[in-house]
Amino acid sequence: ESGERKAKVEKMFGFMDAFLKNDSFSLQKDILDHVEYTVARSRFIFDDFEAYQGLSYSVRDRLIERWHDTHRYFKKKDPKRLYFLSLEFLMGRSLSNSVINLGIRDQYADALNQLGFEFEVVAEQEGDAALGNGGLARLCACQMDSLATLDYPAWGYGLRYQYGLFRQIILDGFQLEEPDYWLNFGNPWEIERVHVSYPVKFYGTVEEEGIQGQTIKVWIPGETVEAVAYDNPIPGYGTRNAINLRLWAAKPSDQYDMESYNTGDYINAIMDRQKAETISNVLYPDDRSYQGKELRLKQHYFFVSASLQDIIRRFRDDHNNFDEFPEKVALQINDTHPSLAIAEVMRVLVDEEHLDWSRAWDITSRVFSFTTHTVHAEALEKIPVDLLGNLLPRHLQIIYEINYKFMEELKSMIGQDYDRLSRMSIVEEGAVKSIRMANLSIVCCQIVNGVSKVHLDLLKERVFKDFYELWPQKFQYKTNGVTQRRWVVVSNPNLSSLISKWLGTESWIRNVDLLAGLRQHVSDPDLQREWKMVKKVNKARLAEYIETLSGIKVSLDAMFDVQIKRIHEYKRQLLNILGIIHRYDCIKNMETSDRRKVVPRVCIIGGKAAPGYDIAKKIIKLCHVVAEKINNDADIGDLLKLVFIPDYNVSVAELVIPGSDLSQHLSTAGHEASGTGSMKFLMNGCLLLATADGAIVEIMEEVGADNMFLFGAKVNEVPALHEKGASLKAPLQFLRVVRMVRDGYFGFKDYFKSLCDTLEDGKDFYLLGYDFASYLEAQAAADRTFVDPEKWIHMSILSTAGSGKFSSDKTIEEYAKHTWGIEPCKCPF
Ligand SMILES: [N-]=[N+]=N[C@]1([C@H](N)O)O[C@H](CO)[C@@H](O)[C@H](O)[C@H]1O
Description:
Keywords: Carbohydrate metabolism, Glycosyltransferase, Pyridoxal phosphate, Transferase. 48% of the residues lie in helices and 17% in strands.
């Protein structure tokens, strides 16, 4: 019956490009049809936002077509699939990226023009999908773009938060948080799959039942919630493949207790049902440590259970022997947030599929791989057993069993070394007995990946030293990457066309190694002139944005010096601000004649602080009071400006990065697992001023240390410096600027006391004092280079030319080959 219908449809439409045409007239018609029939506004009168909606729905139609063809082809070929489990996906906007990956941006721009709209203006109507905090979350989004573009059969699974990462409002220089109700006007980029829903169980008890002489565990849940799927097609660039990001939303389950209904306690019954929806409501805005909150744990299990039910249902469609599961499925755990998936697969295989433990464990340990993104042992997730035992009683039993078997095996390998046994145990005894989710992930997974070469060294020598010594073969690294589609082609179209012109091809967009071809043209004056022009145009756009935001006029001749990332003490935005105070102080104390030699700077800082992170919030306030002083000081004029860009997100980054001359990555060496912002700046020809930390070390290998401005203690020097503690004496310049803040030179004397206290000798854990002198030297080197435009442009072109290694395409190819064992599966039509 469906075969017949398929044949009839194919005959009717012929197979290739079955339905939608992409010529300008067809696009105009589709946009108007959606304005009229989907947005329900008259096709004759609609505004920019309705044009955005109409346009987006017409683009979505073309995504759905490719999504269907891709998944029908995957179904036909039944390749090994990758399932990428992550609690966060920082997608940003979808419109521009989608039309560029579909290869029909120009057609759409023309169609809109015919209808009297401007593409860029309409594209600005879209809000960011901010379903994540920072680097880890954006990394997933870049990796999904690469998985699609490289034709890998992959799915992303996550949570459909109703509230994304909070909006940052700055009031009198203080950060306030506002809810990000991003779904207010609907979301054209998702498809609600009402028929794809699964019950997720919580609480309850575990009973034992005897079946055919076997005792099996039966989990009697206390509460059930429904998980409903929302699909987000992810189009590849230059391919028909479009893969899926499936996000789960919690809905009241249709199982309801008649009891409360009949007692007429109707309202409470409904309220109870409403409670269910809160599970997927809010993204936890903390980019730091794990909070032992029950709701957070519910979120973890909710998306893990729904995802695994969906994955196993798909596997069972074509397979009924679970020994094939690891051949057909690769499960990627992105940090420890999805690690409960390990216990869940064991529960399904043992309790529901009745496999014996060792067979189940063999399958489970071959199907999972784990990537950690942190260097701070204290940031590793630990779940109190009381919390876990109450919410997921069967999973706690299973984790205890996994740990018991692991401890037995370990004792047989290392003997009665109790310190090491307790350090490696998945169960942490002590005041709050807890489950170490990182230990569980390492014990289970075949491969544990760090996110940069330096990160792996830190995992081996510090964070997971015991495990590395036991299982060195498990530990690998896959250097992070960013997608050149969004971070160059979408956000910097002028540079993108310039690169294609000088490389004589656009294939670098899919084959990033070609960027190295720019090296042979680096000294060509025409390229240098055009390169400079592109940067100038992008700087003008950024300057306009700054003026709109803050009313501050900035000079395009100044060096645009940028630090944009989450606010953290280890990322040392405070070092940047103290450096600016030093620069200001120097200019103030200069002879007017010397001021002519000062290289004008526009210092731009942006980033959100976790709502409960007090010190980070003080750093934001300090930035504003210093800016207030400098920007209103007539003596300074255009020599120095400081601007804090509020509500930093993916779209702001897409505007700021192309307009930046210099970007700062100041983490205390050994604290940034990788960093990915640096890679986006590098691709856009922006020079880096940085410590040799995380991925910066590999960037130095690719573009050369002499093509960057490096400073500060090295990773292997920091532990010894920490030992020195109070004996480490900070330089006078540093003491002077700290004194200025402490004495209230910028006001708020008492408010900044605790911030200044963190910099006192012996307390300066992040070594701002120790690194201050070399930091100022690096800044001076940047000044000297900036006044030599040819040298600067030379370094800028070489930065882009050497950025190929840091494409997420590279990262994904490495993972596919060495961790997941998946092959491209390109949809042929
Ligand atoms: N969570 N986490 N970790 C991070 C970032 N904060 O999101 O992951 C990012 C992605 O791996 C890293 O680049 C960054 O160094 C690391 O701190």
